[in-house]
Amino acid sequence: MKFVKFTASALALAAAATAADARDQIQISGSSTVLPYATIVAEAFGENFDFPTPVVEGGGSGAGRKKLCEGLGENTIDIANSSSRIAQSDIDLCKANGVEEIMEVRIGYDGIVFASDVDGNDFAFTPADWYTALAAEVASNGTLLANPNTSWAEVNAALPDQPILAFIPGTKHGTREVFDTKVIVEGCKATGAYDLFLAAATGEDADKKKAAESACNKLRTDGRSVDIDGDYTETLARLDADKNAIGVFGLSFYQNNTDKLKVATMNGIVPSVDTIAKGEYPVSRPLYFYVKKAHIGVIPGLKDYIQFFVSDEMAGPDGPLAEYGLVSDPELAATQAAIEAETPMAALN
Fold it and tell me: Identical fold at 8-109+285-340 and 111-284?
């Protein structure tokens, strides 16, 4: 009798195939930003293909990626939606649990907008304004001091004399990473605080830069900066309860609530599909979903769903996702080709 030796990953895949045979419905979890796009695609997929409508749930980008990396088989999800790129820690968790290959699918772009009550004041922000309003420490005459600002007019005399109260995405949101990087850290650099943090840091240059950025991202804890761990509907409810507040939203959510919200400019640019597509609006980010490659060919319709999601008909500039607010990816054809070839993502840069 001839014996065949199986690797651990092969055995895991075999177990996944056996278990997953009992499930014929694609399971998806993750980003609240990607959720409405995925829901549109899932419903259209169920109507146009001979497969059940996929189950799409929210929960946040980080939570979705962790679910993806729990292992293989019918009791684990197939896709994680994400409004930020997967982290090395996620990839390491996946490998530790037998998820060896992940496909990265970029579906398009979204913008991060700053909006207040539709009947409230007009705001024209810069990243420096947001850093000076929300940072734990701000620069003043070459030194750092605890943030004394209580109104937007104290931050910038050109802004309304309105109390500082900001509802920002919690740390579980992919939106928070973009907010921290493209707003807070950029504002920290613009005000000179970054240079002061850098000068106080120790170690190698890379360590000093990391420490300075970490210091920039320490926000005040006196109730003027409030983390929202729920989705954008919770932020909207908070703004409805306090008309002086300003919230951070995704572009598509704002576009579907223009009767309730007034959007601010950033660096003089109004956020829109057009200004994001042209690269003019400074606070935008790519949107992704991540696929467990081992489930392709095991979970019925999984590859069909992925291909359908990034098809010209769905994710192209004239498709329903663009109508909802997604900025079509100029490199969509390359994504389509990678999916056709079932190409797993390369190592992170």
Answer: yes
- Sign of the Cα torsion 36, 65, 88, 8 reads negative
Topology of domain 111-284, per CATH?
D-Maltodextrin-Binding Protein; domain 2 (3.40.190)
User: pTM here?
Assistant: 0.71
For 339, list phi and psi in degrees, rounded to 5: -70, -45
Q: What is the CATH code of the structural domain delimited by 8-109+285-340?
A: 3.40.190.10
Among 324, 289, 279, smallest CA distance to 310 is for 289
Contact 78, 26 (CB under 8 A): yes
Q: State the amino acid at position 325 in one-letter form.
A: G
pLDDT at 10: 41
pLDDT tens for each residue of 240-271: 999 999 999 988 889 889 999 999 999 999 99
Question: Which residue, chain included where needed, has tokens 């300003």?
Answer: 246
| pLDDT tens by residue, 171-222 | 877 778 889 999 999 999 999 999 999 999 999 999 999 999 999 999 999 9
Backbone dihedral angles phi then psi of residue 292, each to the nearest 5 degrees? -80, 105
Phi, psi of 106 (to 5 degrees): -90, 120
Amino acid at 169: P
Q: Which residue ranges make up each domain of the chain?
A: 8-109+285-340, 111-284
Give the number of C-alpha atoms closer than 13 A to the C-alpha of residue 309, restricted to the C-beta side.
30
Q: 3-class DSSP state for residue 322?
A: helix
Q: How many Cα atoms sit within 13 Å of 213 on the Cβ side? A: 14
Calculate ∠ Cα 34-36-40, nearest 5°: 115
